[in-house]
């Protein structure tokens, strides 16, 4: 029976670091089921869901701390279960671009929470436009059958106007 482990690694970015970590996973006999990698400032971040036999998971739990120390990484591991997909009736992508201000992301995540949507992804970045620091954010969410897409679209448009968003979009996709 396959077991699952979430592995998170953070450290200074340098060429080959992802390769070294994925080589470790493979050499332990594990498979990478899902992963995300990003750079934040000069820091590299990687989150992986790995699967393997009981012995393979023990190998990774044993070998990763030494590898992390060698690579000067902070790592966290946590056993988990396989992700079971929930049948949502719709998916949606909420996007907005506006002058950056403290609390904008928090207000949108509160909106998502208030409307009982399940957030599955968040991407945001800053850029400069006409000497103004701008925020672009994208939220991927799942909606169940009780959600009224038209009401969510209207409420999101109202929120974006209140936040002073120059540009916003909500795209609802049927599953």
| Count of spatially separate domains | 2
Strand element count = 8
What's the CATH class label of the largest domain? Alpha Beta
The geometry reads as flat
CATH homology group of the largest domain = ACT domain
- The second-level CATH architecture of the largest domain is 2-Layer Sandwich
Q: How many helices does DSSP assign?
A: 4
What is the SS-derived class? alpha+beta
Order of helical and strand elements: EHEEHEEHEEHE
Q: Average pLDDT value?
A: 92
The largest beta-sheet arranges its strands as 2-3-1-4
CATH topology-level fold name of the largest domain: Alpha-Beta Plaits
Ends: how far apart?
Answer: 30 Å
Helix content: 25-40%
What composes the largest sheet? 4 strands, antiparallel
Percent of residues in beta strands?
over 45%
Contiguous low-pLDDT stretches (5 residues minimum) are none
Question: Would you give an account of this structure?
Answer:
The chain is α+β, with helices and mostly antiparallel strands. It folds into two domains: 3-80, ACT domain (Alpha-Beta Plaits); 90-174, ACT domain (Alpha-Beta Plaits, 2-Layer Sandwich), CATH 3.30.70. It has four helices and eight strands, in the order E-H-E-E-H-E-E-H-E-E-H-E. It has helices at 17-27, 54-71, 104-114, 149-163; strands at residues 3-12, 31-40, 43-52, 73-80, 90-99, 118-129, 132-143, 167-174. The strands form two sheets. A four-stranded antiparallel beta sheet has the order 2-3-1-4, with helices on one face. Strands 6-7-5-8 form a four-stranded antiparallel beta sheet, covered by helices on one side. The chain is flat, with a radius of gyration of 20 Å. It starts with a strand and ends with a strand. The relative contact order is 0.17. The mean pLDDT is 92.
């Amino acid at each position: 029976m396959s077991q699952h482990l979430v592995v998170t690694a953070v450290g200074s970015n340098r060429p080959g670091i992802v390769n070294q970590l994925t080589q470790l996973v493979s050499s332990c006999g594990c498979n990478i089921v899902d992963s995300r990698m990003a750079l934040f400032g000069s820091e590299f971040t990687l989150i992986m869901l790995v699967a393997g036999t009981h012995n393979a998971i023990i190998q990774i739990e044993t070998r990763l701390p030494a590898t992390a120390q060698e690579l000067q990484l902070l790592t966290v591991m946590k056993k988990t279960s396989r992700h079971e997909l929930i049948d949502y009736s719709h998916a949606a992508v909420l996007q907005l671009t506006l002058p950056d201000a403290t609390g904008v992301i928090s207000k949108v995540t509160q909106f998502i929470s208030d409307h009982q949507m399940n957030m599955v992804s968040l991407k945001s970045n800053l850029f400069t436009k006409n000497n103004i620091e701008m925020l672009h954010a994208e939220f991927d969410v799942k909606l169940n059958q009780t959600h009224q897409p038209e009401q969510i679209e209207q409420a999101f448009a109202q929120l974006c106007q209140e936040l002073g968003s120059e540009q916003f979009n909500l795209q609802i996709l049927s599953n």
